[in-house]
Specification:
8 helices, seven-stranded mixed β-sheet, Spore Coat Polysaccharide Biosynthesis Protein SpsA, Chain A, alpha/beta
Amino acid sequence: MEEITLIIPAKNEPNALPMVLNEIKKMQLSVKILVVIREEDEDTFKATNDYDCDVLFQSKRGYGNAIVEGINRVKTKYSCIFYADGSTDPKYIYQMKEKLVNEKLDLIFGSRYEKSAHSYDDDLITRIGNFGFTLLGNIFMRLKISDLLFTYIFAKTDSLKNMKLNSNDYCLCVEIPFKAKLSKLKYATLPCVERKRFADKKKVKAFTDGLKILIYFFSQYLKSINR
């Protein structure tokens, strides 16, 4: 019986998603798969037809909303936020679970910036941005994390649900570690290699999404110190 659900938010990924699902199938991973998409994204929906996965049509828009609604639907003991573009390597899923169970943790954050880790999807702007946000998180929120914006996350499903996450956009990248810290959850990191996306176009807009995350970061920080 599967204990893990992969939550895969997918937006306009008709070419990459089948490659991701096929890779998981070939590896014979004992996981449930939940693909979360917009109902009007017909091409991506059709791409799931030949695979053993559940599809959830999100009620709102946004990357964060897709993950939040996915978390609320999961019934397995563990959840793993996984990418529809192929950049997250499934070989780390069981490694994350093993570390979480052995060390009695609540969450494992994948990291692209530790020893033996790397990102082939980064460019200079995104690498600087990731480094800057991680530094801010470690200074202001006293996080012990090496890659704040990477949402390749493995966790106890109940821990994720109890956070009552509500970000509809990429601010969720910050909301999860913030609430993990404030909730005094036990977490650690696991070095991962981020691959280049398999196909289709990148959705993140470095400057506009980065600005939204920065505003969210400091708004949440001010709330935390005024509690």
